[in-house]
Structures are given as C-alpha cells and as structure tokens.
C-alpha cells in the first residue's frame, strides 16, 4: 500500500511505528535487566552454604601465607605484617556440598587487637596458628584461646595449626606437644607448611566439615545458611584494611 505523507493515516502509521520501537526498547530493557538479575543470582548461588573462618596467632607465624597458598596457590617470602584485617574467599566442596568460605586474616600484632576482636563474633570457625620453630608462639596459643572464649560465639569451632613444618631443623615444638595441647582443648590439630603446600587444603576442608557437623547438631545456633549474605565490609568498613601481601 502506498500512503501519502500528508494523509492522517501516514501520521498514524508513523506514530504506531514510533510506539512499537519504544515498546521494543522497553521490553528489551526489561528483559535485559531481568536476565542480568537472574544471571547474577545464579552466579551468586553457586554454593550451598556460606561460612566465615578466622585466622589467629602471633605475628609472623604464617597466617597470610596460609591464606594465600589456599586461595591463590602462592607463597611470598618477605614478612609484610597484616594491618588490622583482610579477607579472601574460596569455594570448596565437602560431602557433596559447595561451601563458600570467607576467610579473615587478622594481624598478629598486639596494637591491632581491638580491631581484630570485633571479627570473632561472626566466625563459625577459628584457626589458632603457631610456628613450629617458635616455642613462644606456641605458648601464646593459650592466650589466643582465652580471647576466643571471651569474644567468639560459644559454638565456634577451634582448630590448632602448627605452621612451617618444612623448617624441621629449626623446630622448637614437637608434634606431640601440638597434639597434647589440641586434645586438652578438644580441638583438631594439623601441622602445615605454606611454603611446601603441606596440609593446607586438608586443614580448611576438615574445618569446614567441623562447622557443618556443628550446624547439624545445633541447627538453631547462629550458624550460616545458604540465605545468609556475607557483607564484605563488616563489621565496620572504616576499620578494614587491605593487607594481603600475596
Ligand atoms: N619456611 C616457611 N616460612 C613460612 C611459612 N609460612 C610463612 N612463612 C614465612 O613467615 C613469615 C611471616 O609470614 P606471614 O604469613 O606474613 O605471617 P602472619 O602470621 O600473617 O604475620 P602478621 O600479618 O604480622 O600477623 C614470612 O616471611 C613467610 O615467608 C612456611 O610454611 N614455611
């Protein structure tokens, strides 16, 4: 059909075309937004459960290196002290469940302890790390445990880690001593090496199993669920520093 540009029908046709185009854009935008939202949701839901774990222990025992070995399979030699707290994420599969863990690396230095203690209360599992070449760091584990008992939730899972197992010649703490201390507090225990990647994934997997077991035993406790959203900046954005040296 040929239409004159002057005819009222032509103007109507033009208007319909215009509306159609706008409607398409509108529908496409809506579809796009819904698509992106669904995609993000699906991506966000690539796990069944979320956990928060914490690494505690004296400065220099290797907490940051343990974390970097787990998440990035990296080892960095110079000791760059963590300032305040830092965290990394990792998804692991345990007993057929995809578990997303947020792991907080805390500064071992005394001066940051007011900040780091604020992070204890939201943890489901806490690693107490000492250095097998430093008897002092092992003795300090008792002090770290009493802090955990004071500030962390009752149900928190504790796990003792003796790091730097590769430094056998410098060893000051025997495996037996580590085992005994762990037993006396009812904790699991592993010696690790961030340097040689020894027992790292084993420690995190075992800790995840312990948290899962605890959540099954006490389903009403303040343990994570798949609906629990992790806030990357908690507990207070202003008090968080990024320090991971790896
Ligand atoms: N030989 C050996 N050295 C390690 C190992 N893990 C860490 N180190 C070294 O120990 C030093 C301290 O490591 P970090 O991971 O920074 O220690 P940290 O506990 O995070 O220290 P703060 O952040 O000060 O609390 C670094 O020089 C590391 O290279 C290990 O398994 N074996």
UniProtKB/TrEMBL annotation:
Molecular function terms from GO: G protein activity; GTP binding; metal ion binding
Keyword Protein transport in record: yes
Entry-linked Gene3D superfamilies: P-loop containing nucleotide triphosphate hydrolases
Catalytic activity: GTP + H2O = GDP + phosphate + H(+)
Keyword Cell membrane recorded: yes
Subcellular location as annotated: Cell membrane
Listed SUPFAM superfamilies: P-loop containing nucleoside triphosphate hydrolases
Single GO BP term: protein transport
GO cellular-component term (any): plasma membrane
Similarity comment text for this entry: Belongs to the small GTPase superfamily. Rab family.
NCBIfam families (alphabetical): small_GTP
Function: The small GTPases Rab are key regulators of intracellular membrane trafficking, from the formation of transport vesicles to their fusion with membranes. Rabs cycle between an inactive GDP-bound form and an active GTP-bound form that is able to recruit to membranes different sets of downstream effectors directly responsible for vesicle formation, movement, tethering and fusion. RAB15 may act in concert with RAB3A in regulating aspects of synaptic vesicle membrane flow within the nerve terminal.
Protein name: Ras-related protein Rab-15
Lineage of source species: Eukaryota, Metazoa, Chordata, Craniata, Vertebrata
């Amino acid at each position: 059909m040929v239409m004159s540009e002057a005819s009222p029908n032509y103007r109507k046709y033009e208007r319909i075309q215009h509306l159609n185009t706008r409607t398409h854009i509108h529908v496409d935008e809506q579809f796009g937004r819904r698509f992106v939202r669904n995609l993000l949701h699906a991506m966000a839901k690539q796990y069944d459960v979320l956990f928060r774990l914490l690494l505690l222990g004296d400065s220099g025992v290797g907490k940051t290196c343990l974390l970097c070995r787990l998440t990035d399979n990296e080892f960095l030699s110079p000791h760059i002290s963590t300032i305040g707290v830092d965290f990394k994420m990792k998804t692991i599969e345990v007993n057929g469940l995809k578990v997303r863990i947020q792991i907080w690396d805390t500064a071992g230095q005394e001066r940051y302890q007011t900040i780091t203690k604020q992070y204890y209360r939201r943890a489901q599992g806490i690693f107490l790390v000492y250095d097998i070449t430093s008897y002092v760091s092992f003795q300090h584990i008792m002090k770290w445990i009493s802090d955990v008992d004071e500030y962390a939730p009752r149900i928190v899972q504790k796990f003792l880690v003796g790091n730097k197992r590769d430094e056998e010649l410098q060893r000051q703490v025997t495996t037996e001593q580590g085992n005994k201390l762990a037993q006396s507090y009812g904790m699991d225990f592993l010696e690790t090496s961030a340097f040689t990647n020894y027992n790292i994934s084993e420690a995190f997997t075992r800790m995840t199993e312990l948290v899962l077991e605890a959540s099954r035993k006490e389903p009403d406790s303040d343990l994570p669920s798949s609906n629990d959203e992790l806030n990357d900046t908690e507990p207070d954005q202003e008090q968080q520093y990024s320090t991971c040296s790896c």
